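# nightly structure sweep
# worker-07 picked up a monomer target from the shared queue
# config: single-sequence mode, recycle default, output format = structure tokens
# input follows
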Amino acid sequence: MTPAPSILTTKLHLPRPDARQVKRSRLSALIQGGADCRLTLVSAPPGFGKTSAVAAWIASHPEAPHVAWLSLDEADNDPVRFWNHFLAALGGRLGDFKDRAFAFLDAPLPSYRALVEGILNALASDPQPLILVLDDFHALAHPALLEGIAQLSEHLPDGMRLVLVTRADPSVPLARLRAQGKLSEVRAADLRFTDSEAADFLLATMGLELDPADRATLLRTTEGWIAGLQLAALSLRRAPDPRAFITAFAGTNRYVMDYLAEEALSLQSEPLQRFLMETSILERFDAVLCAALTGRSDSQDLLEALDQANLFLVPLDEERRWYRYHHLFADMLRHHLQKRDPDRAQELHAGASRWFEAHGASVEAIAHALKAQDYDRAADLVVSAEDVLRRGEVSTLVSALKALPEACFDRRADLNLLMAWVLFPSGQAEPLKRCLRRAEPVAVPGDAPRLLAVKSFVARIEGDFPAAVAFARDALVDLAVEDWMWYTAVALTMASCLQLGDRLEEAEDAYDRAIAACLRQGDSLFSVMAQGLKGALLLDQGRLTEAHALLSETLRQVEARTGRGWPPISYVLSSLSGVMALRGHLEEGLTLAEAGMAAGEGFVEPTVNSLHALAAIRLRARHGVLAEAALLTERAREVASRHRLTYLDGYLEVQRALHGGTTGPADREAMLAWERAMGPRLLEGPPHWPLRDGRRLLAKLRLATERPADGIALLERVEADALRVGRMPLAIAARASLALALDAAGERERALSVLEAALSAAEPEGVLAPFLEEGEPMRRLLDVWLRRGAPTAVLGAFVKRLVPDAADDGGLVEPLSAREREVLALIAEGMSNQAIADHLGIELSTVKRHSSNLLGKLGASNRTQAVAMGRRHGWF
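# output follows
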């Protein structure tokens, strides 16, 4: 069940222009920009009236489009919090995608790129105009958020306008949009009041009528800065000699704005000054909160009076119930409060923390407890903030933990354990070990299962799977299923480590128990991950039909709810990719693998990303795209090395040797050097599953370097090990390689016997890949086997799927013409029909005719199958 997002509706409030506000048609025209404008940037320092200008432009917009408004602050640097509010601001404009998007965010670290793509697609399906305003955009600093907004700005659909109101230029492609005529810009120079606008403002808004010369002096001194004029006007209302004030003001230095702020505050009564300063610690407030904080029963009257006096009070809703102070004014008030009564400031933050806790606002309760320097209370709030975790606002929790002083961690085990839990996805063992070292001396008996859980996480990261399983099993004895965040994480850690350690039957049972526990708790995140991992287990066992059914149904359910971009679905896509690849559907397998990589991009868990990369590496190599396979291998090796993923690093070394360059494996000396480096590691003891392919590669290397007896013996060992632990696809692959090795060694009868055993094991589940990967030598051996007569019609039909171009005599049904071979070679390079036509200088229809002819001659059902046949024949 997806938890309801925590939405502050005041952040979605569209400011309404004050009736007394100066009409600035020239400014509205600048904001409007040209007809093709997609992005509007309103960028200027504080106090230049950016928000008011945008609100006035919207109010005067002739098309009256739908407007989505989101006011930002530093707390929005938690990506989940930001996107939840972003989606809420868009409201009904997202159609059915909105609920799926909220569900998509029910994950610790979603793929925000995929989320933005979904938002763009949903908006593109609605032709009605839309203006989306992000106010105070400078508050955002999180790289993933800035990247998401940049992605949004580049791909805005027709009819949509994005408006960024900010104090600094954002990290979006301004230059490109400017060159394309899709950007309108409003800067400080545009926002400064002209003389006539200043006159209107001082008279209509502030109730002051000044001599033109005095007004010009004031405008020149403030340089048209609206906040400066407003502060000056507040002081002028009480000045006994306005001209003397303006003259003195004109001669002030850089501290003039501080002086004006003090004047604005000092003009108020002492009780009102006190009220202003005490409530300035709040980012948002209403009369109830102000009364609770200050003890004043007239808070509502004071807020209304401040609103009427235009004293830097900003309403946050239509009812004018919730407010905030202008940022500059609030900063000044807090500064004076801290200077006059620092102890009172802490008392107020403590009171605000208690109020927000009582009203279920954990994030604000924690923030105020930290500002009150009540760190024990802040720590209590952090460890009990389950609502924050259920909403997936992990970044907020990490920030709060990091804001606590070190002394808190020295005396509290629960803080260290929570820190370890949130850091586990980072895939780095050392921070978790540090948490353990600090937690153990101060732990209480109830902490024991969580200590064991963290030890299991550390062992999992370091590749010590037996230890990880032992720690996890002990932890689960005392962890209650209701303790969802710990129970499910530990259960899946144990199950995955059992799988990695070749204890497949135990792993399947552990996955089933983890899935059942997830479903009981209504936890979709871990449930989808568990089903994806179980699918990989079934794949390892060769139970492809079961795996395909489980993964396809899980994929269908998740896509219906959240779409294909939800990060946990990356496990499902990766496993389903393996199923399709083993069955010979390489193109579909590669598509799924790359979709899994894209969906998992948001995860910081490097193991997940590396495994998706490995799937794509293997499939790209099978497609013959060796340069891309080599590049992916190097990237994955960097991740594995940086995070000390030793078991993956070894497997990547195997992949590097197999796909070490753009033309295939390295030369003899390079291969022998690889054997000297990796051979002992591969042969000493039972390696984890990622290295088993390495043993098969090592065997083939020995065959290639004229050591047939060594190669055959090692392939027999790989086959026996695979059968012992129940990894049937690996056993089939070893048998396929062994059959070729025996045939090359002159033992044809034994080779055909081993080949038939491999085919018999592969046929029930349709395992084609191990035979297809062996290329032309396997095709020739299969032709020999076919000519001798298949023992059963079923097995014979299976082999015909592997070599559909083989007739009874082993030859092609009909040879290809020179032009047909040329077209097939260009298809193998990835060219479209139009690109082939352009390359050869022939008509598109002619290319299509050649393509159709060669498919018919080869008996191939698609281009991918035809290319695979061409590679086996060595035509390229």
